[in-house]
Amino acid sequence: MASAQPTRRLRRPLIVGNWKMYKGGRAGIELAEACVGFARDLRDVDVVVAPPYTALAAVAETLDGSPVSLSAQNLYPASEGAFTGEVSGAMLEECGCTWVIIGHSERRQVFGESNALVADKAAAALRHNLVPILCVGETLKERASGETLGIVERQVEAFLDIIAQSTKPVAIAYEPVWAIGTGRTAGPSEAEEVHAAIRSWLFKKDPALADRTRILYGGSVKPENASALLACPNVDGALVGGASLDAASFGAIASAAAVTPAT
Ligand code: PEP
What we know:
By secondary structure, this protein is an alpha/beta fold. The chain has a single domain, classed as TIM Barrel, CATH 3.20.20.70. Helices cover about 45% and strands about 15% of the residues. The chain is built from eleven helices and eight strands. It has helices spanning about 25-40, 55-65, 90-95, 105-110, 115-125, 140-145, 150-165, 190-205, 205-210, 225-230, 245-260; strands spanning about 15-20, 45-50, 70, 100, 130-135, 170-175, 215-220, 235-240. An eight-stranded parallel β-barrel has the order 1-2-3-4-5-6-7-8, surrounded by seven helices. Helix 3 (about 90-95) links the parallel strand 3 (about 70) and strand 4. The longest helix is centred in the C-terminal third of the chain and has 18 residues, at about 190-205. Residues about 1-5 have low confidence and may be disordered. Phosphoenolpyruvate binds near residues 104 and 221.
């Protein structure tokens, strides 16, 4: 039976907007301004936006002094050097980023990023005071063949020692590949099953790590499905792609996270 008293969330909800390769110029500044507008009215939720590299510096200025934080979508593990086209953690830190998305499935699938490279990037992020948002998730074929937990466990295993050796905060985003940008979403029970498993692997390594790590769900999160997903006990927030490009939709998702669930 549902309790009359709202339960408190164990971890502060976190809503991250991944703008992907959109909103790289003036449009990015306008979207950031709109995010600042809605975030000022929200309590008890962290809001982060991840514009493309070309918009980072300008968006950093827009967000200055606001409750919205800045993330990059990727980094290169070395601090500097002859790595044409790459951007380091040091550069992101200097530019005002405090977060960075690592190992997004588009990076893994389109650019062939391995679990080992994701782990190197996680270490680089922590060295440069960036909170890594470490993405994991299975493909449709892997889910269909019952491999979901095995695949996700291997992805988490790859960076587990690195995040356990640090006391700095990290976030993990469970993003089933088949749900990203497709309009298909994992149902709350499918999401909760994987989130609870991730939490248990963290707990085995270090109970304090399990306690402080926010595990986000990503994959076609929209205002219509956000509340049900965010009500799951091990879902601490959302990594939002398409819907984060529209301030009204992103704001509605962040508002859903700010409301303490009543179960
Ligand atoms: C993402 O880019 O991380 C994502 C989850 O995209 P979408 O919300 O569009 O599925």
